[in-house]
Amino acid sequence: MSKVKMFTENLPNIPWQDKPEGYVGPVWRYTENPIVKRNPVPGVARIFNSAVVPFGDGFVGVFRAEKTDGIPMLRLGHSKDAIHWEFDKDEIKLYNKAGELWMPKYAYDPRVVKVEDTYYIIWCTDFYGAALGLAETKDFVHFTRLENPFIPFNRNGVLFPKKKDGKFLLLSRPSDSGHTPFGDIFLSESPDLEYWGHHRHVMTRGYNQWWQSVKIGGGPAPIETSEGWLLIYHGVTGTCDGYVYSMGAAILDKDNPAIVKHRTRSFILTPEEDYEERGFVPNVVFPCAALTDAESGKIAIYYGCADTYVGLAFTTVDELVDYILANDANTGDDDKDGIM
Ligand code: BMA
């Protein structure tokens, strides 16, 4: 039993390895990483930055599949153990509410979040510029595409798994049309997933932490715990040879997640392994999903590696929360409710 409670489901078949003896740091990698390698299916060069959820007696994944024509699209995968995957031969077909095919021109960095009895997929889509796309499914067979939540430019959309006062909550990062050299995390609310408002600023890039000095963006869906909402996110810094993407963690107020209670001064994972440092885009670890087992406190994190592979890493809720509290950074005015 963990000290900090996760208000999530039990998942006794969560993929897992114990922390290696003598390992320093709150998050450790799966020894057989990467779990998805290059050219995983005919016509697909790389799969990375992808989402995994428990479904039926196994797991389902919505993967960012970069086709050999260079266009990223969403691809479904099935797995019994959440490590070995069978991918569909074709991309996911999205339909509008009238039943007509409504495909994005491209789709990347999907997150999948279950709210009540529905799974929502949120990704970066083309809407006269990079914007958020949204779709829902109950069975991972039929997918209904919903209205794009925001006008461009915005990326890194992450829904909360629970409504607040009947409203959906969405974290996102307003951006620009290119390789955005700035970006904070904001929170928006919607009663129906179509009309969004009550926007609040949540978290600022930078401060004195160089690893997240350029921009930050949501990762997996926030995890509800007895300490507040546990948010695993990515932080980006700029070097003379390009961006470096690391993983960080924060705790948001349980009643008002626009308020940051704690955030890590240091990254919790940064590119160190060959498969994170070398690839289509070097030096990227990009978390997009987490599986949790409430009973044991185990957390399995899925992250993209170097825009080329899918990696798996582990932590526990106690380990991560203890680390955040022991390495708490100055949150600036992020402890305010984010309106001005
Ligand atoms: C971001 C997104 C991510 C990607 C990262 C590094 O802007 O496009 O999908 O992993 O850049 O290339």
Overview of the molecule:
The mean pLDDT is 97. The strands form 5 sheets. Strands 14, 15, 16, 17 and 18 form a 5-stranded antiparallel β-sheet that branches. The protein is built from 2 helices and 21 strands. Helices cover 4% and strands 45% of the residues. By secondary structure, it is mainly beta. 49% of the residues are buried. The structure holds beta-D-mannopyranose. Beta-D-mannopyranose binds next to strand 6.
**Strand residue percentage:** 35-45%
Low-confidence stretches: none
In N-to-C order, the SSE pattern is EEEEEEEEEEEEEEEEEEHEEEH
Strand tally is 21
Instruction: Quote the average pLDDT.
Output: 97
Helix content: under 10%
Estimated structural class: mainly beta
Name the bound molecules: beta-D-mannopyranose
Rg, please?
Answer: 18 Å
Tell me the layout of helices and strands.
Layout: E1 28-29, E2 44-55, E3 58-67, E4 72-79, E5 86-91, E6 107-115, E7 118-126, E8 130-137, E9 144-146, E10 154-159, E11 168-174, E12 185-190, E13 197-203, E14 215-218, E15 223-225, E16 228-239, E17 242-252, E18 260-263, H1 274-277, E19 285-293, E20 298-305, E21 309-316, H2 317-326
Antiparallel strand pairs: 1-21, 2-3, 3-4, 4-5, 6-7, 7-8, 8-9, 10-11, 11-12, 12-13, 14-16, 15-16, 16-17, 17-18, 19-20, 20-21
The structure holds beta-D-mannopyranose (BMA).
In brief:
This protein is mainly β. Helix content is 4%, strand content 45%.
